[in-house]
Amino acid sequence: MSIPYEIMPYEPYLRTGLFLAVLMLVATAEILFPRRPPTVSKKTRWFGNLMIQFINAVVLRLMFPVLPIGIAVLCSEKGWGLLNQYALNPWVSLLTGIVMLDLLVYFQHVMFHKIPLFWRIHRMHHIDLDIDVTTGARFHPFEIMASALIKSVAVFIFGPPAMAVLVFEIMLNGESMFNHGNVSIPPGIDRRLRLFVVTPDMHRVHHSVILRENNSNFGFNIPWWDFLFRTYVAQPALGHEAMTIGLTSFRDMKDSTLWRMLATPFMTMKKVL
After folding, report:
1. Residue 273 belongs to a domain
2. How many domains does the chain have?
3. Is-contact 124 261, C-beta < 8 A?
4. Whole-angstrom Cα distance, residue 29 to residue 184?
5. What phi, psi does 54 have (nearest 5°)?
6. What DSSP letter does each residue of 114-144 carry, written as one string?
7. Residue ranges of the chain whose pLDDT lies below 50
């Protein structure tokens, strides 16, 4: 299942439009149904987080204008990649590609926590002292570039259809904003939802200062990987209202200013989780 060529030029606008739509939807839900009261200045956090998102969008367009979707198109044309070796039903190929990419992102997330060099890059995401929809866009440009390269290599090896890559990227961006949202969902609904998607209460545990909780719930889209690989923690020990968000060594609001966020990988390693 490939992307029609006439759609390709509009792919950036499609992704940007959906990003803004989900951002506004989740931000509105945070106002109407907040889960936690803010602990620091929302104005400072939002400016830094959204500026990082803007920088990342520019970096990707300048340095990786066709990756990894362009690689998927090339692999489909040339017959490269594992999935292109089989005459699969288009819908089976689409779903298989999405699931494979989601599993890849799960392991990528684990790697960014476990390997010190990658943790230096990823920890900027965890320095946020509150968690809301904008935290879902708060990733260091180095991490965004590394992720684009990792996904591109995976697309080259496995050959998922270009439509699967596009749908996955849209899902990943939208779900990241949703599961970082400061949104209150009734417990009964949340329990059922997290059988199929990563909910805000499920992912918020991952942003706890407690080490065991910080090293849990790595999934972004599909929650099954955390269940399967035993990295799932159902609830934070102190409860969602009382839990502390962030890292123990970065409790200064200055660390959430734009320049300090960009400098995070080069900052002296202190008592970091």
Report:
1. no
2. 1
3. yes
4. 8
5. -65, -45
6. HSHHHHHHHHHHH--SS-SGGGGG---HHHH
7. 4-6, 271-273
Q: What is the pLDDT of residue 269?
A: 55
Cα–Cα distance, 197 to 195 (Å, whole number): 6
Q: Would you state the pLDDT for residue 272?
A: 41
Can you give the residue range of the structural domain that contains 198? 9-266
Residue 231 lies in a domain: yes
Q: What are phi and psi of 188, to 5 degrees?
A: -65, -40
Q: With respect to residue 2, please indicate whether it lies within any of the assigned structural domains.
A: no
What whole-number distance in Å separates Cα of residue 156 and Cα of residue 250? 38
CA 254, distance to chain mean position in Å, is 24
pTM of the full structure = 0.92
Alpha carbon distance 134, 241 (integer Å): 19
Q: CA 217 to CA 204: how far, in whole Å?
A: 9
d(CA 175, CA 22): 9
The DSSP secondary-structure symbol of 5 reads: T
Specify whether the CB–CB gap between 34 and 116 falls below 8 A: no
